[in-house]
Design brief:
Blueprint: E1 5-8, H1 18-31, H2 38-41, H3 49-60, H4 66-84, H5 96-105, E2 110-113, H6 119-125, E3 134-136, H7 149-158, E4 165-169, H8 172-180, E5 184-188, E6 199-201, H9 209-217
Parallel strand pairs: 1-2, 1-4, 2-3, 4-5, 5-6
Helix pairs in contact: 1-4
């Protein structure tokens, strides 16, 4: 039987670290003298840290030297890391563990494919690291989603053909990346936003084990 590989995004799929990113960006905006709202934070979904800071500075109409820019990138990340330092297993999103258990029991290859550069420490904090056969994150890629690089590297590390991979994503750029890699894209979140995904679920509580089983067989 052809092997199926499963690739999970991190933020918004396994854990909700988006709220901590938002708080760290909001703190930086306040320091720079302007307000940064939750609505504006939607622009940051699935976007690299560098691009997020560029957008933030555009919102606040703030000009920066390269040196200031680099310092603010570090400052934001250090602030964010203080938040995730306090994370534990209670932060895992509903029924994620059920899905991971189901796949692990059947020896299905599982990878993480995330833009985050802090993926490994987060998975350690919430005690899920052992489920993953490989981690591909912001430290391993040069191109951001919607480029499929992160998922193609994950498939290669799992030893699975990209056509036989399933990707769980909560961001439009991530769904586009999965589609570009010819993988089965599953949108986790608002189906109106993630309309390009092959399948949609608000979260993993909506996903039956029969559905998962069908993905493995097909």
């Amino acid at each position: 039987m052809t092997k199926t590989g499963f690739i999970f995004d991190l933020d918004g799929v396994i854990v909700d670290t988006a709220k901590y990113h938002y708080l760290a960006w909001r703190n930086l905006a306040e320091e720079l003298g302007f307000e940064f709202t939750e609505e504006q934070n939607e622009l940051f979904k699935g976007v690299s840290r560098k691009r997020c800071l560029e957008i933030l500075l555009e919102i606040g109409n703030v000009k920066a030297t390269q040196e200031q820019f680099d310092l603010w990138m570090i400052e934001k990340n250090e602030d964010y890391l203080k938040y995730i330092e306090k994370m534990d297993a209670s932060e895992i999103l509903p029924d994620v563990a059920k899905v991971l258990d189901y796949l692990k029991e059947r020896n299905i290859p599982i990878a993480l494919g995330s833009a985050s550069k802090n993926a490994k420490p987060i998975l350690e904090k919430v005690k899920l690291l052992s489920y993953f056969d490989c981690i591909v994150d912001g430290n391993n890629v040069t191109k951001a989603k919607p480029d499929p690089e992160v998922f193609l590297i994950a498939a290669e590390k799992l030893g699975v053909d990209p056509n036989n991979c399933v990707v769980f994503e909560d961001a439009v750029a991530g769904v586009e990346a999965a589609n570009a890699a010819n993988m089965v894209s599953i949108g986790i979140g608002d189906s109106a936003i993630l309309s390009e995904a092959k399948h949609n679920f608000i979260d993993f509580t909506e996903m039956s084990l029969e559905f998962l089983s069908g993905l493995i067989k097909n």
